[in-house]
Design brief:
The protein is mainly alpha-helical. The protein has a domain of 74 residues: NadA-like (Rossmann fold). 50% of the residues lie in helices and 7% in strands. Helix 3 links the parallel strand 1 and strand 2. The radius of gyration is 16 Å and the shape is globular. It holds the Pfam family NadA. GO terms for molecular function: 4 iron, 4 sulfur cluster binding; metal ion binding; quinolinate synthetase A activity. This is quinolinate synthase. It is an enzyme of class 2 (transferase).
């Protein structure tokens, strides 16, 4: 199983390609043993719901950008609107492509 943001050579080997939530759903309804190529952070969520599943993750699959987000930071931005990010139009247009793709994948 692989997240769609993985390299193409990984995706070509995957039996399933999907969002983080899609991977979790597939593990819960599928076999007892999986190789998962995505951010290791989902490991805890899967073991919470299915502690008997045997999962294999690559040691290097840690998304540093995802680790920057914390509950405290989310609470702060929701409560006072702080830490807004402003970018120029060129960067915004480029960023919109993966953002739309992530939202599409989350809806699967």
């Amino acid at each position: 199983m692989a997240h769609p943001e993985c390299k193409e050579e990984i995706l070509n080997l995957a039996d399933y390609i999907g969002s983080t939530s899609g991977i979790i759903e597939e593990v819960l309804k599928g076999e007892d043993e999986f190789i998962i190529v995505t951010e290791r952070g989902i490991q805890h969520k899967i073991y919470e719901k299915a502690p008997n599943k045997k999962l294999y993750f690559a040691d290097t699959l840690i998304c540093k950008s995802m680790k920057k987000n914390t509950l405290e930071k989310i609470e702060k931005i929701l409560s006072d609107g702080g830490d807004k990010l402003e970018v120029n139009d060129e960067i915004a247009k480029k960023a919109l492509i993966p953002l739309k793709r992530m939202l599409e994948l989350a809806g699967d």
